[in-house]
Design a protein that fits this description.
Largest sheet: 5 strands, mixed
Structural class: alpha+beta
Shape: elongated
Strand order of the largest sheet: 1-2-5-3-4
Helix content: 25-40%
Distance between the termini: 70 Å
Number of strands: 5
Order of helices and strands: HEEEEHHEHH
Strand content: 15-25%
Oligomer: single chain
Length: 138
Amino acid sequence: MDSKIELIFQKDKIGLGRRKRSIARVFLVPGEGNLIINKNPGEKYLQYNDSYLNTVRAPLAKLNLEKNFDIIALANGGGLTGQASAIQLGVARLLCQMDKENRAILKPFGLLTRDARIKERKKYGLRKARKAPQYSKR
């Protein structure tokens, strides 16, 4: 199984997705609908959370291709929510690379939009990005 995965990582068709601090490199392989994240079963990696699993599989579900492809992803950074959304974006982008007509189907669902919300940096003189020290009148 690992040798099969290593061969897949060398291919040029990679869907790259980002969300918050997470980055996911996604590969789609003809198969029966398996999900592998960081060489672990996807269900185990995403802690059997239906919300995360549905998020990852959403682009394939919209195109009725759930049972046609295996999703293999390498995700790092951030938490599970960010990684699941990053994988979703990577899958959607990869499906658009494979067939240009998929773009018209996925775009109305917002699956091709990169969520640009990231943590705001801390400013000097403040406790956090916007939280100021308590004001004292006297």
